[in-house]
Amino acid sequence: MLLARQGLSVLLVDRDRHGADTLSTLALMRAGVLQLHRWGLLDRVRGAGTPAIKSTSFIYGDETITLPIKPRDGVDALYAPRRTLLDALLADEASDSGADVVYGPRLIDLERASDGRVVGAVIEERGGARRHVRADIVIGADGLRSTVAQLVEAAIYREGRHACGVVYTFWPGLEDDRSRWYYRSGVSAGAIPTNNGDALVFAAVPQVRFHGEIQSDMEAGYRKVLTECAPELAGEVAEKMPSERFRGFPGQPGLMRRSHGPGWALVGDAGYFKDPITAHGISDALRDAELLARAVGRGSDRALADYESTRDVLSRELFDITDTIAGFGWDLDRLKPLHLNLSKTMNQEVEALLGLDAQPK
Ligand SMILES: Cc1cc2nc3c(=O)[nH]c(=O)nc-3n(C[C@H](O)[C@H](O)[C@H](O)COP(=O)(O)OP(=O)(O)OC[C@H]3O[C@@H](n4cnc5c(N)ncnc54)[C@H](O)[C@@H]3O)c2cc1C
For residue 106, which atom of ligand 1 is closest to its CA? Predict the structure, then answer.
């Protein structure tokens, strides 16, 4: 979308279908909402009935701290749009901005010049036919298991030590429709209001416990962890039928990959993944999409290197805090300052994004 808005010729290929869902607990942080606002898309997220989250409660054991979301810089509230809505909206806007958006085929290989520079991609249609596409730059926005990252052998230079397992589903009409995040020793849970009157309710545990207790029977494991971490939330859903099936993520330690090279770049989870416990992957992907689009607009390998270093400067602290929280080695007194530091780094990120408006595109 951002590249097409710059007037570049863009082919966007996604192997899935338009409006497909993905594993995610959906919460956008302020930086993510700010990006949607800056790009002129927030009204459409609101217009689709996505509930405005005006405050968030952090529930540490038996203590509740409720923080209002201060309206500022065009962000009136936080939002947690369904990915079926958000991803489709971004792709449609890319198409309306002039990008050629194609669903179904997948990228299977890269074309290279004799000096190794990436000069295009090989796209395979569902039926097996192959198309060779020339391009000045190939961007892997293809997620954690990025094919582009594998093909360019992008080195991993930062790795997390911890991973948590997450199981979630959607519940209609909860009595308490606020955004709530619960923490007790070794467990976390939350309720996040989303579209269609549903709340996404998740339970998170250390990866080893996910494998041992949850994977084989996700509903039973989910209810057990909810009861342990957030008894009132467990009570709210005890007699209800979920709107959708239970979905589980067994965990994956965070990583940062080299995200640029001659003729290629990585963005989103493809280049930088962190544990979902701090719910920041979408916001970061939206941030980095803009940093990368600006670098591509500048048109030099140096600009791509700057993209990666800016991303890393903005991400390192959040990455480390996320990894620590995902390790579940904290008690509640240690967790609160981690959350305060997280909030500080998120504010810095927002300031950095606002600062982009003062720079040439
Ligand atoms: C359990 C869980 C909970 C999460 N909760 C949150 C949260 O609350 N808040 C938050 O901000 N983040 C959350 N995240 C993280 C967030 O979902 C990701 O950071 C985000 O989806 C990254 O977006 P992306 O576009 O980089 O990758 P993806 O969303 O993975 O998209 C990659 C796209 O590439 C396509 N693709 C892949 N390979 C190919 C190929 N070879 N050819 C063509 N197309 C291809 C796929 O079809 C897909 O559409 C969570 C993640 C998990 C696992």
Answer: 42
User: Nearest residue CA, atom 35 of ligand 1?
Assistant: 142
CB-based contacts of 206, cutoff 8 Å, min separation 6: 162, 164, 165, 186, 327, 328
Confirm or reject: Cβ of 141 under 6 Å from ligand 1.
yes
Amino acid identity at 194 = T
Residue 276 Cβ inside 6 Å of ligand 1? The answer reads yes
Indicate if ligand 1 lies below 6 Å from the C-beta of 262.
no
Are the CB atoms for 152 and 261 separated by under 8 Å?
Answer: yes
Closest ligand 1 atom to 123 CA: 42
- For residues 31 and 349, is the Cβ–Cβ distance under 8 A? yes
* Tens-digit pLDDT profile for residues 225-250: 999 999 999 999 999 999 999 999 99
Question: pLDDT tens for residues 275-315?
Answer: 999 999 999 999 999 999 999 999 999 999 999 999 999 99
pLDDT of 97 above 70: yes
CB 81 within 8 A of CB 45: yes
- pTM of this prediction? 0.97
The alpha carbon of 23 and the centre of ligand 1 are apart by a number of angstroms equal to 7
> In this structure, what token pair is assigned to residue 232?
């009132």
Cβ atoms of 89 and 195 within 8 Å: the answer is no
On whether the CB atoms of residues 179 and 57 are closer than 8 A, the answer is: yes
Distance CA 291, CA 256 (A): 16
CA distances from 15 to 12, 88, 147, 304 (A): 10, 14, 12, 26
Q: Please tell me if the CB atom of residue 150 comes closer than 6 angstroms to any atom of ligand 1.
A: no
> What is the token pair recorded at 259?
């995200």
Q: For residues 80 and 26, is the Cβ–Cβ distance under 8 A?
A: yes
With contact defined as beta carbons under 8 Å apart, do 295 and 306 qualify? yes
Q: Helices H, strands E: what count in the chain?
A: 11, 18
Three-state DSSP at 186 gives coil
